[in-house]
């Protein structure tokens, strides 16, 4: 510590905090503030100086002497420009009230004297917080989305031998989000953009945990790669492409890569299901995201269709029933909502991603027919065809919002090509030949493919995202259907068309796979915060001001909100009563 004398006091006082002790004398107030710190001249008697020096050096004698005195800490302004800071305010905050004892002040002095300041430093180092206090500073804003409020995470930490965090109060249970809230709080064709008048329940000032940002649409990668395994299997085994001398090793390699991707993505999403079940539940109730829950099972169907002959040549029929059962359950829910009306009716939620629920029927019919089944494949083909016709007309007219898709979502238009391409192959497998029904579906797919391919603007002007994977398996499906068609109509045109479409799909999948790896592991911008799952159940209270507004637009918006809150469909009415009281 630096010892100061009366002459050096004026130089030291601007940069350090002085502690002046007094013997139970009552100090009412300082009458004025000194304007220049160089003119400060306090009358310090010998006892006060001795007390100051003892406190600075941290000796034991100072602790005994301070038991009879009270202290006053005064922080002087660092520069003369800080005029106007009243000593009366400082004194009133730190001095001992009249008639009280000095026990607490003595304890405070004792604690400060134990933390000695190293020589040559001006300010003492701040004491380190205990570990239990640092744990309390952990961000708990995501606990509402954690399964069991993080209890499973604490159990795993205890199993690994880590120090237990203090158990905080359980966070309030997240209420069930009615479907009309998704339309009120979100906007855009994919319902993934938050309206300006809404707020989210998760923090916007930081990046969320990875599992919260990992969407169900990530299974689109599996769809693209696994469909390539089917295409290269057909290129190697079809008579019309024998001149290419394609080896079955390409099919084996692609199948192994697609199986590995399926395992990795399924494992990650399973972790999200375990640790952030609320986020998965919100994706399931999202009127657009629910379509992507078909993607994992369609990918498994693709893996079954593209399995290499070196692994197995015949799959057991029980596998078909196992894979089609979850698709059938999802269709009962989704198609029932389309018919029942309400906020989830098809004219309200129609989007190109709805093709995924249709494609599942045709892929299942294709796999079942290739296994020798009859009734089951025809059943799913009929269900898929009926709903495809209705959805095709609805999407062509753009009834939901009459808005065009933004550039970032242009790739999903290629999903129009997927359903008729797979339908032509499924009917060929059911009938045993590429007849007129198969050709009608194939020509529809081919025309839609060309009508989208000639629009160059659909392929430029927007940044990369997971939506780009929507290009892949529709293009691959068109290539496989062309290979099947070239077996019936064998000429130079069909063979060249099969090679061109197959090459384009392979180049697209390869480019997207490399780009996805770069954005995921190098740039790390592949998974932004998923705003669609973080909306609140109730709107902001500021909607009440619409009642007193004379503006016609404000009144219309308020009436629209009131009407939408009353329009309950079947799904929206199934809310949990205990949660509604939260």
Pick out its properties.
24 helices, cell membrane, transmembrane helix, transmembrane, two-stranded antiparallel ribbon, disordered C terminus, globular, 582 residues, SLAC/SLAH, mainly alpha, Voltage-dep_anion_channel_sf
Structural class: mainly alpha
- Summed up, the helix count is 24
| End-to-end CA span | 58 Å
N to C succession of SSEs? HEHHEHHHHHEEHHHHHHHHHHHHHHHH
Q: Write down the overall geometry.
A: globular
Estimated share of beta-strand residues = under 5%
Mean pLDDT across residues: 74
The strand count comes to 4
| Biggest sheet: strand arrangement | 1-2
Largest sheet: 2 strands, antiparallel
Give the helix proportion (percent range). 40-55%
Membrane topology: Multi-pass membrane protein
Protein name: S-type anion channel SLAH2-like
Family: Belongs to the SLAC1 S-type anion channel family.
Subcellular location: Cell membrane; Endomembrane system
Give an account of the 3D structure.
The chain has 582 residues and is an all-alpha fold. The chain contains 24 helices and four strands. α14 (317-340) runs antiparallel to α16 (355-370), α18 runs antiparallel to α19 and α20 (472-488) runs antiparallel to α21. It is globular, with a radius of gyration of 36 Å.
């Amino acid at each position: 510590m630096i010892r100061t004398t009366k002459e050096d006091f004026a130089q030291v006082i601007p940069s350090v905090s002085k502690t002046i002790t007094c013997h139970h004398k009552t100090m009412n107030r300082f009458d004025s503030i000194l304007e220049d710190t160089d003119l400060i001249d306090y009358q310090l008697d010998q006892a006060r100086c001795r007390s100051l020096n003892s406190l600075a050096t941290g000796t034991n004698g100072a602790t005994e002497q301070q038991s009879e005195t009270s202290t006053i800490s005064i922080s002087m302004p660092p520069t003369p420009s800080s005029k106007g800071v009243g000593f009366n305010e400082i004194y009133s905050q730190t001095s001992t009230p009249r008639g009280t004892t000095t026990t607490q002040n003595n304890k405070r002095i004792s604690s400060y004297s134990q933390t000695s300041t190293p020589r040559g430093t001006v300010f003492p180092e701040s004491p380190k917080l205990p570990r239990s206090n640092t744990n309390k500073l952990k961000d708990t804003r995501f606990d509402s989305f954690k399964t069991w409020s993080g209890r499973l995470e604490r159990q795993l930490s205890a199993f690994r031998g880590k120090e237990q965090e203090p158990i905080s109060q359980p966070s309030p249970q997240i209420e069930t989000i009615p479907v009309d809230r998704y339309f009120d709080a979100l906007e855009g064709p994919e319902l993934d953009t938050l309206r300006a008048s809404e707020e989210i329940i998760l923090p916007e000032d930081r990046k969320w945990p990875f599992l919260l940002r990992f969407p169900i649409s990530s299974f689109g990668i599996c769809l693209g790669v696994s469909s390539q395994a089917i295409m290269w299997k057909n290129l190697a085994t079809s008579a019309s492409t024998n001149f290419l001398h394609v080896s079955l090793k390409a099919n084996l390699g692609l199948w192994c890569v697609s199986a590995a991707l399926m395992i990795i993505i399924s494992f990650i999403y399973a972790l999200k299901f375990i640790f952030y079940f609320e986020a998965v539940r919100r994706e399931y109730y999202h009127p657009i995201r629910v379509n992507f829950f078909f993607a994992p099972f369609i990918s498994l169907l693709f893996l079954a269709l593209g399995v290499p002959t070196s692994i197995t040549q015949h799959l057991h029929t029980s596998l078909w029933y196992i894979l089609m059962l979850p698709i059938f359950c999802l269709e009962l829910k989704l198609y029932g909502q389309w018919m029942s009306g309400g906020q989830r009716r098809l004219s309200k939620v129609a989007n190109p991603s709805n093709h995924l629920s249709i494609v599942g029927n045709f892929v299942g019919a294709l796999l079942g027919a290739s296994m020798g089944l009859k009734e089951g494949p025809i059943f799913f083909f009929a269900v898929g065809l009926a709903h495809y016709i209705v959805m095709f007309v609805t999407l062509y007219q753009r009834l939901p919002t009459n808005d065009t898709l933004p550039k970032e979502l242009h790739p999903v238009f290629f999903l129009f090509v997927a359903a008729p391409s797979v339908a032509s192959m499924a009917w060929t497998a059911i009938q045993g030949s590429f007849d007129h029904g198969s050709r009608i579906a194939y020509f529809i797919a081919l025309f839609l493919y060309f009508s989208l391919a000639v629009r160059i603007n659909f392929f430029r002007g927007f940044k990369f995202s997971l939506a780009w994977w929507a290009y892949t398996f529709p293009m691959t499906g068109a290539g496989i259907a062309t290979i099947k068609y070239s077996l019936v109509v064998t000429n130079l045109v069909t063979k060249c068309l099969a090679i061109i479409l197959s090459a384009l799909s392979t180049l697209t999948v390869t480019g997207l796979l490399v780009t996805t790896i770069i954005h995921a592991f190098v740039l790390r911008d592949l998974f932004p915060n998923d705003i669609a799952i973080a909306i609140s159940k109730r709107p902001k209270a500021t909607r009440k001001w619409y009642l007193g507004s004379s503006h016609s637009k404000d009144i219309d918006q308020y009436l629209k909100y009131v009407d939408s809150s009353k329009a309950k469909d079947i799904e929206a009415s199934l809310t949990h009563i205990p949660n509604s009281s939260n």
